[in-house]
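Input/output pair, single chain:
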Amino acid sequence: MKNVVGRAWVRGERLIRRVGFVLLLAGMGGAAIAQSFAFNAINIEGNQRVADGTILTFAGIERGAALSTAELNDAAQRIRASGLFETVEVTPVGRTLRINVVEYPTINRINIEGNARLRDAQLMQLVQSQPRRVYNPTQAEQDTNAITQAYAQEGRINAVVTPRIIRLSDNRVDLVFEVVEAGVTEIERLSFVGNRTYSERRLRGVLDTKQAGLLRSIIARDTYSPERIARDRELLTDFYRSRGYPDFEVQNVDVGLTRERDAYLVTFNLREGQKFTIGNVSIRSEIPGVNAAEFERALRLRTGATYSPVPIETDITRIERLANQRGINFLQVDPRITRNDRALQLNVEYVLVPGPRIFVERIDIEGNGTTLDRVIRNQFRVVEGDPFNPREIRDSARRIRSLGFFQNASVDAREGSSPNQVVIDVDVEEGPTGTLSFGANYNTDTGAGLLASYRQSNFQGRGQRLSFEFSTARSNRRLGFSFAEPAFLGRDLRFGFDLSYRTTDNENALYDTDTLRISPSLRFPVSENGRLTVYYAYEFTDLTDVSASASQIIQNEADEGRVSNSSLGYTYSYDTRRTGLNPNAGVLLRFGQEFGFGDSQFIKTTALAGAETKILNEEVTLRATVEGGLLNYQDGDSRVTDRFFLGSRLMRGFEAGGIGPRDDATDDALGGNAFAVARLEAEFPLGLPTEYGITGGAFIDYGSVWDVGETFGEAVIYDDAITRTVAGVSIFWTTPIGPLRFNFTEALDAQDRDETKAFDVTISTSF
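Output:
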């Protein structure tokens, strides 16, 4: 309290002195105001650290110069504006000008008290006042506002920050920011006005901002942030326009506080407009010598499709890429859209027009203290000297951001050394790219276990991915190493190297296994949605600790000892989920074959086809997957370490190895050389608040695994393709520690000796 009173007294004294100086001038009359002074001497008093010459420089006064009273007042104001003095008095005494100053104290140290939610180190980064510098009340006030704003961004808008000074000897002070944090002001309700097509539940799922809910102490998105609300406006606009609503707009966002000022009420006012489909799609050229018909094959937009800017942008990119391949530079595509409001259609005409003849002079990269320049340059499809294409630059910016290496990344173009050249400026801010975790996991197939992992997505700033992983469970232990170079030889070619060593202690069988696999690979695009991976693999497997009471089939397989094989293989995948052309549906196709040679020769074929779509205004998600595999040996025969087993990942409702061929005498699961599974699933809301992240599901699985191969004359049951059926319901829970899924299952069609289970859960926790 003493410090506050002292500061008020100093301010009052300063005001009295200023008023006295004004009254003195007023008492002189109008003649005095216009009077000029010339001084032979200037006396400066009260300064301790600031030199006389510095004060005179601030004042802008020279000895012997004629000055009016107004100019004397301006000189005093300039000295005050330096921010070095608490009080300044400029007084003419005959032929002498007397300047009296009281310097601001020096800051001895800066403390923050009362803070618990935000640490000192975090808040001190916001404070511009510094020890051993002159104390400036204006700067201290700005620091106070910065700290208050930091708390507001954390949802604590009622936080109070008060600056205090503690006066010390030798004109020094301690600067203390006293913080009263108050409680979190959460978002109590997110609501919408004007939405007719989609429910509030669906639209809340689009937003990055969330309502305060069950996990409010963990989820940080239930606090109000103007930046996040601005992002939500963009997300809503993209959501509607990609679904056929070109006239959609967020008219405004109303943000209010409850009466108790402890929660926000946020309302988005929307104008949906009408839903449009695509009418006529055409292409023509305004460039002499360029035939538009040659570019028709690049078009994917079709009449009758729901309007969306995404496929139009994709068509433009394909046209421009085809033009570059044909050596046609400076071609631009102008999409001209005409409306047919009666039919609710948009006609799209792609017009090929000549673009400005502008070249890329250079690409400047700043802010990358860790990431090498070439990693960023690899995201550009243009180099210095190439024709400038604004769309390609925007795509490059998107690719840079999608790397995940940077907290912020901006790509801008500016005029270069001449009007027909541009300089591309890339400004990035490095972010964390590595994780080291120790934790525990639980899986109903393998039990509980410990895990440790290290992952680095930007190894030594080269854009390379490196990971080590060690996990141990009740019946499964694994050591893994993985390395990937995404731009091998500077091309869109991914080189990978994987090594894994796994041992199992099968509690449901009387044997253990050891498996080592080493596999280098190359992956590259073969089409817009297609990827091809080719690889080599070396693998050895061994059956160990085989009990004398184990299946004779397994004992005979174990007698072969350690088996080593080399193989060459490929995997082709086609994934429309990458492009997002249809936001409500996606298709994944995957087919691969592995050709083995070494101790045995085989062909292993696997395939998967999956589709997903959303119905009922995107409230319900339907998924269908068909998956299968075939293992065919030309020389030798498969062993239990090679064959397929159906665990809960492939077919729910059964224990690991719970279905398929079994030894009739020992009941050991033997696996099969072939399997096929079909999975049908629906996910839907349960009526709970969306911020809880809990939804429901129902599923039905059909599948079987069969064909042991060589049985050594032993009796094997279920060796034929006998289909099993299981149905169940699921609870999906999206939590900050990861997505959890609880399955409650019932086997509708199972064989007598199958091993079923009624409950399945997968959970992973790191700490």
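Residues 584 and 612 are 8 Å apart (CA to CA). The first helix runs from residue 2 to 27.
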